Amino acid sequence: MDFSGFRYIVVGAGFWGLTLAERIAKLKKEKVLILEAKNHPGGNCYSYFDKETNIEVHQYGSHIFHTNNDRVWEYINQFSGFNNYRHKVLTKYKNEVYTMPINLMTINQFYKKNFTPKEACGYLEKEAMDAHIDTPQSFEEVIVSQIGYPLYNAFIKGYTVKQWNQDPKDLPAYIIKRLPVRYNYNLNYFDDCYQGIPKFGYGEIFNRMLQTPGLEIRYNVDYFAIRDQLPKDAMIFYSGPIDKYFDYCFGELSWRSLTFISETVPVNDFQGTSVMNFADMDTLYTRCHEFRHYHPELDYSSLMKTIIFYEKSKETKRGEVPYYPIGLKKDKEIYEEYKLRAQTLKNVYLGGRLGEYAYMDMHQVILKALDLFDQI
Ligand SMILES: Cc1cc2nc3c(=O)[nH]c(=O)nc-3n(C[C@H](O)[C@H](O)[C@H](O)COP(=O)(O)OP(=O)(O)OC[C@H]3O[C@@H](n4cnc5c(N)ncnc54)[C@H](O)[C@@H]3O)c2cc1C
Prior knowledge:
Layout: E1 8-11, H1 15-28, E2 32-35, E3 47-49, E4 56-58, E5 65-67, H2 70-77, E6 89-93, E7 96-100, H3 104-111, H4 117-130, H5 139-147, H6 149-164, E8 194-196, H7 202-210, E9 215-218, H8 223-226, E10 235-238, H9 242-245, E11 255-265, E12 275-278, E13 287-290, E14 306-315, E15 324-325, H10 329-343, E16 348-350, H11 352-355, H12 362-375
Parallel strand pairs: 1-2, 1-10, 2-9, 6-12, 10-16
Antiparallel strand pairs: 3-4, 5-8, 6-7, 11-14, 11-15, 12-13, 13-14
Helix pairs in contact: 1-12, 4-5, 5-6
The structure holds flavin-adenine dinucleotide.
C-alpha cells in the first residue's frame, strides 16, 4: 500500500477523526488519509437504511444527537438536517413499564401514590434517611443515600450489574456524583436545546463528510499493521484505544463492550417505543432498541415488519475495538501515565472516546475535534 504524499493521517473514521479530517481537507486544503479498521465510516455511530423496510438501523445501538453547543450544531447541520425526534426511555420492572430517568411519574407509579413534587422529594429524603448511610463509600451507597433502597433495588441495581458485570457495592463512589431524579413529569431523556436524528440517517452524514475534496479513506486497515510504512513527517490523529497505542506498556485499561442480537419481527410495532430497558436482574438483556421509532416523520403505517436489537453487555477482549471505558480508580492512574506519555509525542494527537479514555457523546467528541483543529 502506498502512503506517500499524505502529510495528515487520521486513524479511525468515527466523529472525532472524521471531523478533523474534514476540517483539514476543507480549510487547510490539504490531502488527508483516513485509515479505518472497520469496513464502514462512523465508528459506533454508523447507521444504514435497511433496503427492505426503509428502517434506519443503528448498527452499534441507538444514537440520539443532542447538544447545547451552537458551534457543534452549526457544524453538523452542514451535512444534514435533523428531524424532531425527542428521546424517551422506558424500563420494564416486574412486568410493569416505568419512565426513566426516575421522575414524578416513576415515583408515583412505583409507590402507588399521587405525590406533588414537594411531597415526592420529602418522601425520597425519608427513604434515603432510613438507609442510614452517612458517608457513601460505593456507587450503591451514593445512590441509596439519595433515593433509598426500594427505588435503587428496582431500577438501578439489576441494570448496573448487567451493564458492568460488577456488584454496585464494589464500584467506587466517585464514578457517580448524583443520580438524575426529576420531581416533575418531564419525560424527555435529554434537556439540550438541539436534539434529533439526522433526517437521512447518520450514514449519510459520514458519506457527505467523506465527499470533501482531498479526503481519502481506506477501510479494513489496522494502523498497527502499517504504521512503519507511513511517511515519517506525517501528522497523525489517532482515535483508537490509548493503551493499545503504547502497546500496553503501563498496563491494560478496563473497557466494556456490547453484543446485539438482531431480529426482524413480523409486526408493525413491536414495543411502541425506541428503547425499552430491562431493570430485572433475571432478564438477560439490558435493553431492546426498535429503530422505526427514530423517524416519526416517515410513514411506516402499512409496514408489517420491524427491526429490533436486543443489547447485552460483555467483556472486551484485548485487541478488540471497545465500546465504553469503565474508569475504575486503577484505570485513572494508568490513564494518567499514558496521557503524560502522549504529551511527549511529536506530531501525534490521541483523541476521541478511546484515545482519551473518557465517556463522551457525539457532540463532545465533535467539539474536541474542532478545538484541536483550531490549535494545529
Ligand atoms: C451503545 C452506545 C450508545 C451511544 N449513544 C449515544 C447517543 O445516544 N448520543 C450520543 O451523543 N452519543 C452516544 N454514544 C457515544 C458515541 O458513540 C461516541 O461519542 C462516538 O462514537 C465517539 O466517536 P469517536 O470518533 O471518539 O470514537 P468511535 O466512534 O469509537 O470511532 C473510533 C474509530 O477508530 C477505529 N479504530 C480504532 N482502532 C483502530 C486502528 N488500530 N486502526 C484503524 N482504525 C481504528 C474504530 O474502528 C472506529 O471506527 C453511544 C455510544 C455507545 C457505545
